[in-house]
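Q: Got a minute? One more chain.
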Amino acid sequence: MKLFTICLFLVTLTLPANAQETNTKALLTQNDNETWLQEYQQLEDSEEKLKMIKAKILYDAQFVGPRPGISLTGLNEEQRKALKQRESNKPKVTADCKILFVLQATQSHILDLEKSPHYTSLVEHLETFSISDTILTGTSASAFYGTRARCGVVLLKTEDSKALDYLENINNQK
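A: Always. Here it is, folded:
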């Protein structure tokens, strides 16, 4: 009986580890992103880094990022009501902030699948490309990308011809 209880306990402990890809959280917080960045920075293998980036981008796509506030200044009552109605129809914000992933090739591409779902196939193939990375946090991130970089920026740079062809195909399909 003790053996059965121990086995059941061990199986119960491993279940949450196997369910990491499902979104059970209602809010993506800045603390979650800081923890992810720390874990990411500890990795040395570039393939593992790209797998981690891919998983993070796909996971974050489930959350709605913060939007800039609206101004009602200068609007009449009818216009205010219409604007408030439009805003109330938008999905509820479920992310305190998001890490900004930017792929720099011939030009910069922000890999936010919530706003640019056409990059999904590129993200799914990230680990097949030759990519180097740089992490920006704090004032250096904000200086380049403004308030949307509050949780940090991961710059991905590539000159890989496969990646460039893939980007060209995606942009031609838009």
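A: Confidence is low (pLDDT under 50) at residues 15-23.
Q: Perfect, thanks.
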